[in-house]
Specification:
Blueprint (H helix, E strand, L loop, with lengths): L1 H16 L4 E5 L4 E3 L7 E5 L5 H5 L3 H9 L4 E3 L2 H18 L15 H12 L3 H5 L20 H15 L7 E5 L5 H10 L2 E6 L2 H13 L6 E5 L9 E7 L10 H11 E14 L11 H8 L9 H10 L2 E8 L1 H17 L1 H7 L2 H19 L3 E10 L12 H4 L13 H13 L11
Parallel strand pairs: 1-3, 5-6, 5-8, 6-7, 8-9
Antiparallel strand pairs: 1-2, 3-4, 9-11, 10-11
């Protein structure tokens, strides 16, 4: 039959290039080993109609087939991703087709953006709690020494950001896309800032407000269910962590203009987000972007760091410091995968099988993509263009001097608490984040 000859030719083509620890099992009992006797991964094809996914093995096709149950896959998820990447690479190269990133662009409105955010983040708080660190920081961690556990690295990431932008007691700080509130809690407790955190996720909003209330920080932190485009006021410090991927490449200049309008003269902002390593602003190679858009991050778009810096300048902001944390995100995702796999039985009870498969392959795929330099993570510190800023020291020494991860989200340090109290007394009419606007 035609499909048999085509399949055999495809298998021979893969085998001729390298041996993969893969076994292919067909519905009729036939098996193909790809060069190693003890396969790490077994792919079962339950029906001939599923061969189309396999014979054109982009990451999007293979991911879709796995998620929808068209192909049955057995093996460790990291091995699954590694072999899927190898199949896509070899097949596409053999076909002499280009392997660009994903370049689809979307129309971003408040309603569409809110729907996309809620689709991704409002699975359930319990779902995220099962595999994130205890403070539920869902963004790239910072491994200062390389051997930190996830909780420590996430706390160090927050401090790394707040130290970079030199948050001072009494500063009004806006966190765009505040998640479950970890950064604003840390900024208020340890640094004495007065904070506003905004999110479009109803679940994040509810839990972040609950955490703030339990810590007795309502006079220092306000959590809002609000689009960043609707925020008003003036802030000495602005952070945006893992949010601007939802803005849209074509909207980046407007996004940075909004930050400019909210940033006080002499203030400092930090944008921390995933960037493409495709100079043409594509996503991951071999169809990874299509899969993420379809199943994980609707309307997400990635820009190259060059595009980000250009848009930042167009938005009236000057980049002062850029740091690439790609390998930090590869490690972060790898630790999330470990947690996800360790809690797999519990997670299967929280979501339906399809959503479980989506998240399982997505997290492992992200770890692979960051490790392969398909995508990256950049922190950019910026100020208003055309201004001299005395907010930052002359060198980077302040970022690392006296660095300590602290003890978590407990009581603020005494010196910071005292300074914050002084600032609050001097500005008694402005004791809440709401009144700061």
């Amino acid at each position: 039959m035609f499909w048999e000859r085509r399949l055999e030719s495809w298998v021979d083509g893969i085998r001729s290039e390298s041996a993969l620890p893969l076994r292919l099992q067909l519905w009729n009992g036939r098996e193909f080993d790809f060069g190693q006797p003890d396969p790490e991964v077994t792919i079962r094809v339950p029906h001939a109609s599923a061969l189309s996914y396999l014979l054109k093995p982009t990451l999007s096709n293979l991911g879709q087939a796995y998620v929808e149950g068209r192909l049955e896959v057995e093996g460790r998820v990291n091995s699954m991703i590694r072999i899927a990447g190898a199949l896509a690479d070899k097949t596409i190269k053999n076909a002499r087709r280009p392997t660009p990133g994903f370049h689809r662009r979307f129309r971003h409105t408040r309603r569409r953006d809110a729907d996309a955010i809620q689709y991704h983040y409002d699975v359930s708080n319990e779902f995220y709690q099962a595999w994130l660190d205890p403070n539920m920081v869902y963004s790239c961690a910072y491994f200062e020494d390389g051997d930190e556990d996830l909780a420590t690295a996430q706390l160090k990431k927050i401090d790394h950001i707040l130290d970079k932008i030199q948050v001072q007691p009494g500063d009004r700080l806006l966190d765009i896309g505040c998640g479950w509130g970890a950064l604003v809690i840390r900024a208020a407790q340890r640094y004495g800032a007065r904070c506003v955190g905004v999110t479009l996720s109803k679940n994040q909003f509810a839990l972040a407000r609950e955490r703030v209330a339990k810590l007795g920080l309502e006079d220092r932190i306000e959590i809002r269910l609000q689009d960043y485009r609707d925020v008003a006021g003036s802030f000495q410090r602005i952070t945006s962590v893992g949010m601007f991927e939802h803005v849209g490449v074509g909207n980046l200049a407007a996004y940075f203009r909004k930050i400019h309008s909210l940033l006080a003269d002499g203030g400092v902002a930090m944008n921390h987000g995933i960037t493409s390593t495709d100079a043409n602003d594509g996503g991951t190679a071999y169809g990874g972007g299509e899969f993420i858009d379809r199943y994980v991050f609707p309307q997400g778009e990635l820009a190259h760091i060059g595009t980000v810096l250009k848009a930042m300048q167009q938005g009236g902001l000057e980049a002062l410091d850029v740091e690439n944390l790609r390998r930090h995100y590869a490690r972060t995702c790898a630790l999330w995968v470990e947690n996800f796999e360790a809690r797999s039985a519990e997670l299967r009870q929280m979501v339906d099988p399809r959503r479980y498969r989506i998240w399982r392959v997505y997290l492992a795929g992200c770890a692979w993509a960051f490790a392969q330099d398909w995508i990256s993570l950049n922190q950019v510190v910026c100020i208003k263009s055309g201004q001299q800023s005395d907010a930052l020291p002359w060198s980077r020494r302040h970022i690392y001097a006296g660095r300590s991860a602290g003890t978590g989200f407990g009581q603020p340090l005494p010196a910071v608490a005292a300074a914050a109290a002084t600032a609050s007394t001097q500005d008694a009419a402005d004791t809440s984040c709401a009144s700061a606007e």
